[in-house]
Amino acid sequence: MQLKEVLIKNDFHFKKKFGQNFITDKNLLDKIVDSAGVTEQDTVVEVGVGGGTLTEALAKRCKRVVGYEIDKTLEPILNETLAAYDNVSIVFGDVMKIDTSSIEENIGEEYKLVANLPYYITTPILMKFIDEAEKLKSVSVTVQDEVADRLCAAAGTENYGAITAAIDAVGNAKKVLYIDRRNFYPIPNVDSALVRIDIDRNKYDIPDRSMYRAAVRCAFLSRRKTLVNNLMLSFGFSRQKAEEIVAAIGKDKLVRGETLTTEDFIKLSEQLNK
Question: Rounded distance, CA 245 to CA 218, Å?
């Protein structure tokens, strides 16, 4: 039975507050699994299981899927669509309210995150796992196409932002698949893309990751302001002190935070620690 028929049979109503748009095309689902690099040795975490179509595609190819779904009314639908798979377990609850350490304790090994993320919560979910996960090997998520550009942007470009610098510090992001909006049910107002982030916690030597994150937040506090002004606003420095810090990382006092690379942010975090 097709997903649409199962949804109708169970009188399911889409909820805008959860940003529910399901993928039903099996060829596209297989492409997503391929692009995510999922193998039969992998354990996969899926956030936002929805109707279970991506879950099924993953379950066919990997060792185990642990899915998190906030909408409890999807339970009877998932019981039907995933009935044939004994390597799938679904946790009903808000993943943002579950400690990442508890999630990883439940999984018990390294894992890959694969998800068709609800647009409204893309950044918080990404940052939760990027910042807190210790056993995460890679992240492959469908996001709005313009968000995909932001996740993969180069320093100094229009799309470059705090989340770009946060991701680059721990891995390598790449837009691997364009997805037309017509592939979703119901059809959203924007096109999407699949972004894959391969995690490498040793990519950079960052002595204090919390200060690195503080430096990034400061730099992007106001894109129109100089880094000096943002340092004054964020940390209460005098202008003279803020200019000294910017000079210490080898930058002009008129530089804007959006032009700083990951290496620059590391230098800035070290100066802030001093």
Answer: 13
**Six-digit token pair at 131?**
């910042």
Q: Indicate the burial class of 107 (C-beta count within 10 angstroms; 0-12, 13-18, 19 or more).
A: middle
pLDDT, one tens digit per residue, over 61-82 is 999 999 999 999 999 999 999 9
Return d(Cα 219, Cα 227) in angstroms, integer: 6
82 contacts 59 by C-beta, under 8 angstroms: yes
Q: What percentage of the chain's residues is helix, strand, coil (to nearest 5)?
A: 45, 20, 35
Question: Running DSSP on this structure, what letter comes out for residue 226?
Answer: B
Q: Which of 137, 143, 265 is nearest to 201 (CA)?
A: 137
Give the integer Cα–Cα distance in Å for 46 and 65: 7
Query: Given strand 136-144, what is the order of strands in its sheet?
Result: 88-92, 64-69, 43-47, 111-116, 136-144, 192-199, 171-179
pLDDT surpasses 80 at 120: yes
Cα separation, 58 vs 89, in Å, equals 12
- Residue 102 burial by Cβ neighbours in a 10 Å radius (0-12, 13-18, 19+): exposed
Helix (H, G, I), strand (E, B) or coil at 239: helix
How many residues are listed for the chain in this entry? 274
Closest C-alpha among 255, 158, 273, 154 to residue 208: 273
For residue 92 the two structure tokens come to 């009903």
Rg (CA), the chain: 21
- Give yes or no for a contact between 234 and 218, defined as CB atoms under 8 angstroms apart: yes
Q: What does DSSP say about strands 184-185 and 171-179: parallel, antiparallel, or unpaired?
A: unpaired
Question: pLDDT class for 6, splitting at 50, 70, 90?
Answer: confident
* pTM of the predicted structure, to 2 decimals: 0.92
